[in-house]
From TrEMBL:
Positions that bind Ca(2+): T675
Protein species of origin: Lepidopterella palustris CBS 459.81
Presence of keyword Ribonucleoprotein: no
A GO molecular-function annotation: mannosyl-oligosaccharide 1,2-alpha-mannosidase activity
Protein name per its UniProtKB record: alpha-1,2-Mannosidase
Reactions the enzyme catalyzes: N(4)-(alpha-D-Man-(1->2)-alpha-D-Man-(1->2)-alpha-D-Man-(1->3)-[alpha-D-Man-(1->3)-[alpha-D-Man-(1->2)-alpha-D-Man-(1->6)]-alpha-D-Man-(1->6)]-beta-D-Man-(1->4)-beta-D-GlcNAc-(1->4)-beta-D-GlcNAc)-L-asparaginyl-[protein] (N-glucan mannose isomer 8A1,2,3B1,3) + 3 H2O = N(4)-(alpha-D-Man-(1->3)-[alpha-D-Man-(1->3)-[alpha-D-Man-(1->6)]-alpha-D-Man-(1->6)]-beta-D-Man-(1->4)-beta-D-GlcNAc-(1->4)-beta-D-GlcNAc)-L-asparaginyl-[protein] (N-glucan mannose isomer 5A1,2) + 3 beta-D-mannose; N(4)-(alpha-D-Man-(1->2)-alpha-D-Man-(1->2)-alpha-D-Man-(1->3)-[alpha-D-Man-(1->2)-alpha-D-Man-(1->3)-[alpha-D-Man-(1->2)-alpha-D-Man-(1->6)]-alpha-D-Man-(1->6)]-beta-D-Man-(1->4)-beta-D-GlcNAc-(1->4)-beta-D-GlcNAc)-L-asparaginyl-[protein] (N-glucan mannose isomer 9A1,2,3B1,2,3) + 4 H2O = N(4)-(alpha-D-Man-(1->3)-[alpha-D-Man-(1->3)-[alpha-D-Man-(1->6)]-alpha-D-Man-(1->6)]-beta-D-Man-(1->4)-beta-D-GlcNAc-(1->4)-beta-D-GlcNAc)-L-asparaginyl-[protein] (N-glucan mannose isomer 5A1,2) + 4 beta-D-mannose
Cystine crosslinks: C480-C523
TM annotation in the entry: 140-157
SUPFAM superfamilies: Seven-hairpin glycosidases (SSF48225)
GO terms classed as biological process: carbohydrate metabolic process; ERAD pathway
Any single GO CC term annotated in Swiss-Prot or TrEMBL for this entry: membrane
Family the UniProt entry places it in: Belongs to the glycosyl hydrolase 47 family.
Length: 740
């Protein structure tokens, strides 16, 4: 393997060679006759391209197809994006592009100033400058790709590196392949990271956004917030990319300054930047090779930056209720209510700050970080959400929920994730969060799990009008964190064989593992259901009428999927035009990583590899200038969105790397990963006198809160019963004594 040019980008620099390299890699473990035939096919295809005289100019940088976001909810969410903020993004100085783009999209945001980030919904960018060239070439490239794939088909090679002959046209859910070289596959992930990073370093160094097709960067605040650099630190440490890390460190120590009159999103800044610094601190003091030598001073930079940033973010918590405002100004430290959603914060955002603040409190011994973050959990829980399922908005000033919409996708997701992770982060010293997680998961099983038809995929659906309203059979890709988190909850991160030996193991945990397994298949199905093998942002499902709920009986989807275009299982998935984009999100590979570590079933690694191949094949930018989100998972080649999310480096590639790597790196029973995949150690808070400062309000048998005044009534009733019983007893004794 040529590690200096992993994807053969510098020879010929064509999308075709990228495809060739990916194909070669994938096929490396297949039978040699298959490999040779594949190479011949590739050579034939390349020859054809050369003959056509277009190979060097060929590009995946097809015109951007800005999806028409017609779904009412999508419109609602995207409007929220451009809600408020003081500073517009600054231009990057690389030519003219983004000012012009800002003007082009000005109509979308109107005169409003914009927040830099709002729950990871990206801004739109102008179409690629290559548009016309692509259209000119399309008629030539299309038939050639058909020819190449036709040859692959003819020789029986499939993208997963398996010969069709052996298994027929089925993707086996239970298949295990032990012979692959996982070290090599892990190296391929590192190569993809390097490629992404090198392109960013070359074209957009220091910028908060990277647009790899137009090769530009963009600031979210004057001179940047370190959005991409800080988010990627720990991945570089895990991959041992010391040169890249040194460059990042140098930039952070000399150029990054948070003293800026800039509004930032409280949640995004916490999980990505604060989380990024904290995990860098953890890994730097833990990973061999990064640990300071005996007697040498620790590198304090990461912790200093973390504390400085956290102090600024604390201003967001200064609301009347203690629930943080959606945004905060880094300089004035003033919290700012959301400019959408009636000023309410998103519930997931307000309740996914605790792992970071608690770890910082433990590291520094400063309890106020802990207390501020923990107070939020108390206020949220005191609303008494039925069956642990919380509406997706909460007002910071009053601390009460807005509307009754329930989902585990956007704005709901990481509330649930942080319940169980807080329990494990603090070494089980806070059982209150286990209690809340158990209640919520029971609620999910009762109200949200339904089945698709005809193939009975497990669907974690939504209740847009509350628990008494209809079920909406839709899953955001974001929901796919759940299979892994459920498995983590059931086992504590131990391998399931070990977990089964624990006295706490029982039917509940068995059922949870089965739910995780079935949901994992659904998330995987979201990838297999598309032309590119990449999941859409959102999938809808055909469901039974009336809905077949889990509480009516557990159903299972097939163990194998027929890959034929007209296979029956495809009817279960409905992908709407507004949802066909793919932002290179991590949730499915995140869950695959947990499922692999916990069950040891290598099918999860196989699925991961197929996903990784699809990302390489369809999201890599021409000439190796990185990877980009795409506009349509059902179009080949897909239109690019010209944007590389920071979570591509921080999460997606990290999870792939860990999935293909040895199990003793970041053992899951010793760490927790925050919602941006930044690992923190588990710790014992009582060692720093940190304790849970609140108790849940009592619930009655129906799950309703028993308020203080009601408790009083209950007490009075109980007292009078006692008195009556007491008097009766006395009378009885008296009567017995007097012989009556
Ligand atoms: C990340 O920023 C985090 O995983 C967050 O919890 C959800 N959205 C993105 C990735 O999809």
């Amino acid at each position: 393997m040529n590690t200096r040019d992993p994807f053969n980008l510098h020879k010929g620099s064509t999308a075709f060679t990228v495809l060739q390299h990916s194909a070669t890699r994938a096929a490396s473990s297949a039978a040699s006759y298959t490999r040779q035939a594949g190479q011949q096919a590739l050579e034939a295809g390349k020859q054809a391209l050369d003959n056509a005289g277009i190979a060097d100019g060929m590009s995946f940088a097809v015109p951007r197809n800005v999806p028409s976001f017609t779904d009412p909810q999508r419109r609602y969410e995207d409007n929220a994006w451009g809600s408020s903020g003081r500073s517009r993004f600054a231009e990057n100085g690389h030519g003219h592009g983004n000012g012009g783009v800002a003007e082009k999209i000005g109509g979308i945001f109107g005169d409003k100033k914009v927040l830099p980030m709002y729950k990871d919904k990206p801004y739109n960018y102008g179409a690629s400058m290559r548009r016309r060239r692509w259209f000119k070439m399309k008629r030539v490239i299309g038939p050639l790709l058909v020819l190449v794939f036709g040859l692959f088909y003819w020789v029986g090679w499939s993208p997963s590196g398996k010969s069709k002959g052996a298994k027929g046209s089925w993707v086996m859910f239970s298949e295990t392949e032990e012979n692959y070289d996982w070290d090599e596959r892990r190296e391929a992930v590192k190569d993809a990271f390097k490629l992404s990073w090198d392109a960013y370093e070359k074209h957009a160094w220091g910028y908060d956004e990277f647009h790899p097709v137009s090769k530009r960067g963009r600031y979210m605040a004057t001179n940047g917030l370190g959005w991409i650099i800080v988010d990627a630190l720990d991945t570089m440490m895990l991959m041992n990319l010391t040169k890249e890390l040194a460059h990042a460190r140098e930039w952070i120590s000399t150029s990054l300054d948070y003293e800026k009159d800039q509004d930032v999103n409280t949640f995004e800044t916490t999980i990505r930047m604060l989380g990024g610094f904290l995990s860098a601190h953890y890994l730097a003091s833990t990973l061999p090779g990064f640990k300071p030598a005996e007697g040498a001073p620790e590198d304090d930079l990461w912790l200093e930056k973390a504390s400085d940033l956290a102090d600024r973010l604390l201003g967001a918590y200064e609301s009347a209720s203690g629930v943080p405002y959606a945004s905060v100004n880094l300089k004035t430290r003033q919290g700012i209510p959301s400019h959408a959603d009636g000023g309410a914060s998103s519930t997931a955002e307000a309740t996914s700050l605790q792992l970071e603040m608690k770890y910082l409190a433990f590291l520094t011994g400063e309890a106020h970080y802990w207390e501020k973050a923990e107070k939020v959990m108390e206020v949220v829980d005191n609303n008494g959400a039925k069956d642990g399922l919380v509406p997706i908005f909460i007002y910071a000033d009053r601390g009460n929920f807005r509307s009754n919409e329930i989902r585990l996708g956007s704005r709901g997701d990481s509330y649930y994730e942080y319940l169980i992770k807080q329990y494990y982060q603090t070494s089980k010293q806070e059982p209150i969060y286990l209690d809340m997680w158990n209640e919520a998961l029971t609620g999910v099983r009762k109200h949200l799990i339904t089945y698709s038809k005809p193939s009975n995929f497990t669907v974690l659906a939504e209740r847009p009008s509350g628990l008494d309203g209809h079920i909406h059979p839709k899953m955001d890709h974001l929901v796919c964190f759940m299979p892994g988190t459920i498995a983590l909850g059931a086992t504590g991160g131990l391998n399931v064989t070990e977990a089964k030996k624990l006295p706490s193991w029982g039917t509940q945990q068995e059922e949870e593992m089965e739910l995780a397994t079935q949901l994992m298949k659904t998330c995987w199905g979201m990838y297999k259901a598309t032309a590119t093998g990449l999941a859409p942002e959102i999938a809808h499902f055909n469901i039974y009428d009336p809905p077949q709920m889990m509480r009516h009986g557990v159903l299972s989807s097939p163990e194998a999927l027929d890959i034929a275009d007209d296979a029956e299982w495809r009817q279960d998935f409905v992908i709407k035009p507004a949802d066909v984009h793919n932002l290179q999100r991590p949730e499915t590979v995140e869950s695959l990583f947990y499922m692999w570590r916990i069950t040891g079933d290598s099918k999860y690694r196989e699925w991961g590899w197929e996903m990784f191949e699809a990302f390489v094949k369809y999201t890599m930018v021409n000439n190796g200038s990185g990877f980009s989100s795409i506009g349509n998972v059902n179009e080949i080649p897909p239109p690019t969105r010209d944007n590389m999310e920071s979570f591509w480096l921080a999460e997606t590639l990290k999870y792939f790397y860990l999935l293909f790597g040895p199990n003793d790196i970041l053992p899951l029973d010793q760490i927790v990963l925050n919602t941006e995949a930044h690992p923190f150690p588990r710790f014992e808070p009582d060692k720093k006198r940190l304790v849970t400062g609140w108790k849940r309000i009592l619930r009655d048998a129906a799950g309703n809160l028993v308020r203080e005044e009601e408790k009083e009534e209950v007490k009075v009733e109980a007292k009078s019963r006692e008195v009556v019983v007491g008097l009766a007893t006395e009378a009885l004794i008296e009567a017995q004594e007097s012989g009556k």
